[in-house]
Amino acid sequence: MGTRKASGSDGLTVLFYRWYWRIIGDDVVKAVLGMLETGEIPQGINHTLIALIPKTKKPSRAQEFRPISLCNAIYKLVAKVLANRLKMVLDHVISP
Q1: What H or E segment, with its residue span, contains residue 27?
Q2: Exposed e or buried b for every residue in 14-28, given b needs 16+ CB within 10 A?
Q3: Which site from 46, 78, 83, 95 is most exposed, i.e. has the minimal number of CB atoms within 10 Å?
């Protein structure tokens, strides 16, 4: 995940997690594993903000904006793990 990309709805970037990993790493891992094991996502973790970034200096039409989603970094981690697991399963099924 890009360290300097836009922050999520919690205001934290991936750079924050990397910078303070020594302090928060164990808790982040427990949170992610807990969500993966139980299938339950705590309220607020998956809140996402949508922002429209102008493509031109003076946009006047919807096509002149680029939408970006601002997801919580922990939610991105869960999604990334699930995507990687799915890819491993599909790779195994397609080429045993």
Answers
A1: helix 21-38
A2: beebeeeeeeeeeee
A3: 95
Tell me, what DSSP letter sits at residue 44? T
Q: Which residues contact 4 (CB under 8 A, 6 or more apart)?
A: 13, 15
DSSP state of 58: S
Beta-ladder partners of 71: 48
Q: Evaluate if pTM is beyond 0.85.
A: no
pLDDT greater than 70 at residue 3? no
pLDDT at position 6 over 80: no
Report which DSSP code applies to 35: H
Q: Do residues 78 and 36 make contact, with C-beta atoms less than 8 angstroms apart?
A: yes
